[in-house]
Amino acid sequence: MSTTRPYAADDRGPDVGDSDGESEVETRAVDPMRRLALSGESGIVPRARDFTREALRDWGWLPAATADRRAAAEDVLLVVSELVTNACLHAGGPEELRLHRGPKGLRMEVVDGGAGDPTPRTPHRSGRPGGHGMFIVQRLCLDWGVVRSADRPGKTVWAEMAAPS
């Protein structure tokens, strides 16, 4: 059973609105990509969640007008938490969080220096503590994967979610 949500056919992003001398805010609101450096930081997971929550507000996902929109935003925050936590526990810590907003969804990327690949624990045992992160990501996202760069160690773990309807 999939928990993904269908794309919103008419999603064009937030309306920028009238300019009242706040051009910096407008420019930031329509910026389709956000980056947060996480190397050497403390409180990485809450910091990543706060950063993501701010981006969701700027992009019109929050405040959520309906239960479905609220659930979509909460799912994004959960996936970011899981990806960042996974990098902390298994990859020596995350280096950067990237959020890419598209017309039909959101792509979250966590860059780390680790050599291993994340995998959902199989078989999944819901009553067992720990090991649920990538299972949660797999269940909530349309797709996820790992990209390695030939010119540097480590990887980028990415996940994509549909925009709320």
TrEMBL record:
One Pfam family of this chain: HATPase_c_2
GO molecular function: ATP binding
Keywords: ATP-binding, Kinase, Nucleotide-binding, Serine/threonine-protein kinase, Transferase
Highest taxon of the lineage: Bacteria
Domain Histidine kinase/HSP90-like ATPase intervals: 45-159
Region entry Disordered, spans: 1-31, 112-131
Protein's UniProt name: ATP-binding protein
